[in-house]
Design goal:
about 325 residues, alpha/beta, Rossmann fold, 6-stranded mixed β-sheet, 3-stranded antiparallel β-sheet, 15 strands, about 40% helix, elongated
Length: about 325
């Protein structure tokens, strides 16, 4: 539980101590039901004015206040032709990035791609045109030089960029959209997204591909000149198939505490948005939303309501007492 007083903290707590001291003094001078009610009202009003609350509630945040990070799988499997029928997965990723950018118009965007290594394609910028341009020219990495990739290879770089964004603009929520198929081809196990999760305020993991798998063309010579299908050396050089690994993607989503959405077409992106609403920006120095009150479950109104109820009781008690005093006077009149 945290407190956000309605006045400057030193002034609020000074006045609160004076009010509590006055209530205590009256109780010491003589205890009565009325004075106990007065003391309780003072205590409730002071607590309500302190605005107690708990972190974690969703808070509406303007798009212009958001930092949105796209982490895109550029391994050869992103060329697998099983998105929305027989389109390459990367085409679906590109369409979703552009759709999300349109939904978050005015936000700042960053684009990070990964294959065997991760790199920043676009640093944080409010230039949506730059994002669209760089997204359109994304191309799967070459199968000829691929040495296996990890689905967590972008983890450290992403954590660094998130930390830098938090330092420069701690008030801005940071959304992470991870787009990939979850296929782990590196020998080592994926590393946990622990550090990244602490810096993430929302987003989603978007999965692409099917359980039947898709054949992959080689893009060694560029996006405009896709080559032959990548062969599977262990299967008589027939076209290799890439299969989505949804449990792996769900593990990433669970670590980041964001929803997982399986994308099979460019339609229905609303589910990735409706479940990915950010809480207020989290910082290492203070719990989520403590700077401005957003992202908190406020309970001051319960205390204020209780104080109001006691005051109504007091007004009713005074009214009954006044009427009782009026009755003898009325009887004495001719």
């Amino acid at each position: 539980m945290t407190f956000l007083p309605i006045l400057t903290p030193w002034l609020f707590w000074t006045l609160s101590l004076l009010l509590i001291a006055a209530a205590a003094y009256l109780l010491v001078k003589g205890r009565s039901a009325a004075r106990w009610r007065y003391a309780l009202v003072v205590l409730l009003v002071v607590l309500a004015g302190a605005r107690p609350g708990f972190a974690g509630a969703p808070a509406p945040v303007a798009s212009t206040d958001l930092n949105v990070f796209f982490v895109v799988d550029m391994t050869p499997s992103s060329a697998a032709e099983d998105f929305n029928g027989a389109a390459p997965r990367l085409e679906g990723m590109k369409a979703d990035i552009l759709a999300l950018a349109n939904e978050f118009a005015g936000a700042r965007f960053s684009l990070i791609s990964f294959d065997s290594k991760a790199k920043v394609v676009l640093p944080l910028t409010s230039d949506a045109t730059a994002l669209a341009t760089l997204t359109e020219i994304l191309t799967p990495s070459s199968a000829l030089v691929s040495q296996g990739s990890s689905i967590s290879v972008a983890n450290k770089l992403l954590a660094q960029r998130l930390a830098a964004a938090r330092t420069s603009h701690p008030e801005r929520p940071r959304l992470v959209y991870y787009l990939g198929d979850g296929e782990q081809t590196a020998a080592a196990s994926p590393e946990p997204f622990t550090a990244t999760a602490k810096l993430t305020d929302g987003g989603a993991v978007l999965g692409y591909g099917t359980t039947d798998g898709g054949k992959m063309r080689d893009y060694t010579f560029g996006s405009d000149k896709p080559g032959a299908y990548i062969p599977d050396k262990a299967n008589d050089f027939k076209p290799a198939l890439s299969v989505i690994d949804e449990p792996a993607l769900q593990t990433i989503a669970g670590a980041l505490k964001v929803p997982y959405v399986h994308r099979t077409s460019t339609e229905g992106l609303g589910s990735a948005l409706s479940k990915a609403a950010p809480t207020a920006a989290s910082t290492a120095e203070s719990p989520a939303g403590m700077d401005n009150g957003a992202g908190r479950w406020e309970i001051y109104w319960l205390l204020a309501l209780a104080a109001f109820g006691i005051l109504l009781w007091e007004v009713g008690d005074l009214t009954r007492s006044w009427r009782a005093l009026q009755r003898p006077a009325m009887r004495g009149k001719p």
